[in-house]
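Lab notebook, page 48
Experiment: co-folding of the full assembly
Goal: obtain a model of how the components sit together before planning crosslinking
Operator: M.T.
Materials (sequences as entered):
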Amino acid sequence: MKGGLVMEARSLDRLGDEIAELSAHLDAATARLLDLIREFDDRAGWNTGFRSCAAWLSWRVGPDIGAARERVRVAHALERLPRLAHALAHGELSYAKVRALTRVATSETEERLLAVGRAGTADHVERIVRGWRWMDRKSEAQDNARRHARRELQVYQSGDGMVVIRGRLTPEVGAVLMQALNAARETLYAQTRPQDFDSPKDGSAETPTMAQQQADALALLAETALHHGIDPGAPGERYQVVVHVDAAPLADPDAPGQSVLEEGARVSAETSRRLACDANKVVMTHGLDGHVVEVGARTRTIPPALRRALHHRDRGCRFPGCTVRVGQGHHIRHWAQGGPTTLSNLALLCRRHHRAVHEEGYQLVREPDGELRFRLPDGRLIPEVPPTSKVPDDPAVMVRACHDTEGIVIHAKTAMPGWMGERLNVAYAIDVLHPLAN
Ligand SMILES: [Zn+2]
Ligand SMILES: [Zn+2]
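Observation: model returned without errors.
Model output:
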């Protein structure tokens, strides 16, 4: 009886060893997988209609989008962290530990954090990384607070009557200001045709310098703000499309070219069609002599009730592999070309994919069976679910054989932590390890 128990315990030990050994092999193989993902991302192999490498990975291979993002992040992080990369490739650290450590490791701290990974369990590593990030955030918050406190804008009149402006803005506010200045400068100067600048330089027709243009742009911003009231507004309200309709063809909805979108100052026809697909519109009806005979009220191209039904049916962007929940209503056949605003002619697309179908040549049709079909610009179908890859009968044997030929030696104790059961004091560990801890 006793002999039977010993046998039992031995075979369980062997089973445990086998689990440990194969897990280390799989982690080592993950390092190779991450190398491939990094190369794929660097060469933009996913850029065939997908938003990101992670979105492609989730679609093609099947991890949820969060796990896919983590793989791409870790893949890139390991490029800068050769010691952690080596430990993973040799099965000495699990992918879970490496994933946690790459959240905080820099080339300066990598060595110390590798030691943490070797000594501790996955739980220890997770707790130390959490403490580490807290310390990182604390010093970052101090930096931010310092920057924020230094914001200032001085506006004063100098001796010659000119108003002088000097200031310092936080990065995010500065970005808004620069964007606004660019937009205003484009409005003021982009429509000016080049030949206007070719006229003889009598002083008045000279192109203003960049600094002069910036000053004019700021003036326009101030005037606009005072004129429209100081209200940042909702992003959806920023576009309004004017549609010119000939009165005669209105009676016959099948007549070609019944409506024409007003082209924006500098947007292509494709872009104006995308903006018009789901926007506010104002319909101007022209009489036979070309004059405007009627101006309709501003309406949404897709009425609210239909939009709710569309969101309820599509639940997010319909592009294969896309997980974005919010989207714009796309007319499969554009309303400007007579496409009806009905559920069967609408599909919800995120901003990225709405651009893909209007401006990048991706094609979208609804088949007679009601299914949507997306195609690449070259006409190849993008399947909703990709075909599964072929795998050898015993993948574990293949992984072991690969490591044998690469000379990577992995056994049951390769990834065993050095921990002897003592209590982990995270605060003490951070104090000793973190470069910014006092
Ligand atoms: Zn559209
Ligand atoms: Zn999308």
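Interpretation: DSSP finds 16 helices and twelve strands in the chain.
Next step: discuss with group before ordering constructs.
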